[in-house]
Amino acid sequence: MNKKSVFKKMSLPLLSGFMLLAVPLLGMAALPMPADNSLIYRVHGLDAGNVLKMYKEPGKEVIVNLPHNATWIARRNAQMTIGDKVWEKVSWDDQTGWVLSDALEEDPKATEAANARRQCLVDPAVADKECCGYPEAAKGGLFKSIPVYAVQDLSAGESLMMYVDHGEDAIAVEIPHNGTNIVKLGQRAEAGAFAMERVRWAGQNGWIDASKMSFDEAKTQYGDAKRQKCGGVSGGVDFKASEVVCLPAPVIRRLQESGALDAETVKKLLEQAPK
User: Fold this and answer.
1) Cα(78)–Cα(87) distance, rounded to whole angstroms?
2) For the chain, where are the E strands, in sequence order?
3) Highest-pLDDT range among 33-47, 96-110, 243-257
4) What is the mean pLDDT of residues 185-214?
5) Distances (CA, A) of 8 to 5, 35, 69, 77
6) pTM of this prediction?
7) Mode of pairing for the β-strands spanning 183-191 and 243-244
């Protein structure tokens, strides 16, 4: 199977014309930042399958690919210009680096949730601050362990492709090389040695290459402990094994069009698909 398949190597995305890797730093200048740093941001202006690259320094050394719909991005109060492009220092997940400023916009929903958590943290009436921000809807019910998985065998600048069912098509979402908090949904499609697992990641359900995911024991233990402490989880999922099912035709088509699979594997998957 061609390894470029369900993960994407370091390629210039939609924003490639803005990267200016070879631009001299003669035009670099610091810019003033907004006083309000309580806002949360998301990626904007990218289509599914494209990424916003986070760099160690503006345009130099990729740290991680942010998906086209990534959110919970925090500004670090540092900007600079190189030529006519503005770069922004941000944090996302546990990574901090530089992205193009015009690829960000405020996420009102995430901002509201973040501010609610801040208010909880300073509220003297709240004794257990660790549960601040934990969703009320998840409180109560029977606790169940939820195994969490992480991306494996990829390097910075590569992404694991997740194909999200979307009617007659399958939208490609790129999971970063160090992505985690992937949860199995109990369905698996197989064709010889190749297998795709249906998972949930970042609020979306989709299909990923099963060989590129590994059990994340530390994240699993942390998540289980917090859910148990903060009220249990209603309708929790605990999949020990996945049922073998047919891969949706739109996903097969996307894999075929991308050159991800050899003809024999595609043939096997199509033979399984519902007529």
Assistant:
1) 9
2) 7-8, 29-30, 41-43, 51-57, 60-67, 73-82, 85-92, 95-100, 104-106, 149-151, 159-166, 169-176, 183-191, 194-201, 204-209, 213-215, 243-244
3) 96-110
4) 91
5) 7, 38, 17, 31
6) 0.72
7) parallel
